[in-house]
Design brief:
Elements lengths: L1 E5 L28 H9 L8 E6 L3 H7 L8 E4 L5 H14 L8 E6 L7 H18 L3 E5 L10 E7 L5 E7 L4 H10 L2 E11 H11 L1 H12 L4 H6 L6 H4 L8 E5 L9 H7 L8 E3 L2 E4 L5 E4 L4 E4 L4 E5 L4 E5 L6 H10 L7
Parallel strand pairs: 1-2, 1-4, 2-3, 5-9, 10-12, 11-13, 12-14
Antiparallel strand pairs: 4-8, 5-8, 6-7, 6-8, 7-9, 14-15
Length: 349
């Protein structure tokens, strides 16, 4: 099995720690290794670093290579321009096949660079089962996370008929639900969170693109035939997610339940949930003094942060910025990023 890691996101949810030149996947949010490095580590020994490809942006390619010296440098692919996940995956899979390795019929796992698993071995076991299904039956597989609460911020997979070896048919992809629907999904046991992790044969994926996205498929073929004009052609490709462009259109897609403490670490609040905490429920990183304070996430990167008598806050200090906001509103940090963009404070982004 080969792996294609998608590492092109901007990571604005963790601003100011994340910046354009150092987005979320390049940050060490929990330990000493970045989320990208932990993603590669997690795959071993199932997928060796020599069998890993990373699709990232031109701006981040060198930083990715520095973080992953064990991955061959020419397998860090710099996407000509950000055009969402479907063009990125199709373009990268085409390059993997053109590289001459046996990735046309061998399973390829596609996964984000910035997710967390509490149980790495459990993840590898499920991923290996999916790869066997692809190798033996040419399935298109997606890994769906067993929901742990009624989440309205994730898409869902609705489960259909049972398939051999514990697999299930995916009846349909469901967009982010309202709370009542999410509670019904949790109680009913027929839905999984959509984690955006797929396994398929490379040739199968390209065939599906030709069938369901002929314009994109033709564009990728044109890039292969005219690599000197790759940037110009790529810019014209339809910018759609792999879910919408391909996966939601398939009548036969299978899933395996993934139950290994998955998190997309989508906010400061989500990070607070998984970090170790003191007796007062504070998650503290860096040089921090917290007195009479509870349920806070405080990150000090350069300099001391001291708090007194506060509750439920996110406080982040970097070399040039201090951010303070209620933990429950941590998803709204993007508003601050947008405001600074409007003020043309690009040096802070």
């Amino acid at each position: 099995m080969k792996a294609l890691i998608l590492a092109g996101g901007s990571g604005t949810r963790f601003w100011p720690l994340s910046r354009k030149a150092r987005p979320k996947q390049l940050l060490a949010l929990e330990g000493e290794r970045s989320l990208l490095q932990e993603t590669v580590d997690r795959l071993q020994p199932l997928v060796a670093p020599a069998d890993v490809w990373v699709c990232t942006t031109r701006a981040l390619a060198e930083a990715v290579r520095e973080q992953l010296p064990e991955v061959p440098a020419d397998q860090v692919l710099a996407e000509p321009e950000g055009r969402n996940t479907c063009p990125a995956i199709g373009w990268a899979v085409g390059l993997m096949i053109d590289g001459g390795l046996d990735v046309g019929t061998e399973p390829i796992a596609v996964l984000p660079a910035d997710h967390r698993m509490a149980d790495d071995q459990g993840f590898r076991t499920t991923l290996a089962r999916a790869a066997r299904a692809v190798a033996e039956h040419d399935y298109v597989m997606t890994l769906g996370v067993v929901p742990r609460w009624a989440e309205t911020g994730y898409g869902y997979l609705e489960l259909g008929a049972a398939l051999p070896e514990g697999m299930r048919h995916v009846l349909r992809f469901v967009e982010k639900p309202d709370l009542a629907a999410a509670e019904a999904y949790l109680a009913g046991g027929r839905h999984l969170w959509n984690a955006g992790i797929f396994v398929f044969r490379g040739t199968t994926l390209l065939d599906l693109l030709a069938k369901h996205q002929p314009t994109l498929s033709a564009g990728l073929a044109a890039i292969a035939a005219n690599p000197d004009h790759a940037a110009e052609i790529y810019r014209s490709l339809p910018a759609e997610s792999i879910d919408v462009a391909v996966m939601e259109k398939l009548d036969h897609i299978a899933t395996l339940p993934l139950d290994c403490g998955w998190s997309d670490l989508g906010s400061w609040e989500a990070l607070h949930e998984i970090l170790p905490k003191d007796e007062a429920g504070n998650a503290l990183r860096g040089e921090v003094v917290a007195l009479d304070s509870t349920d806070n996430l405080i990150v000090a990167e350069g300099g001391l942060v001291a708090v007194l008598g506060v509750e439920g806050l996110v406080v982040v200090r970097t070399g040039d910025t201090v951010v303070v906001l209620p933990k429950a509103r941590s998803q709204e940090v993007r508003r601050l990023v947008a405001e600074l963009g409007g003020l043309r404070r690009d040096e802070l982004l």
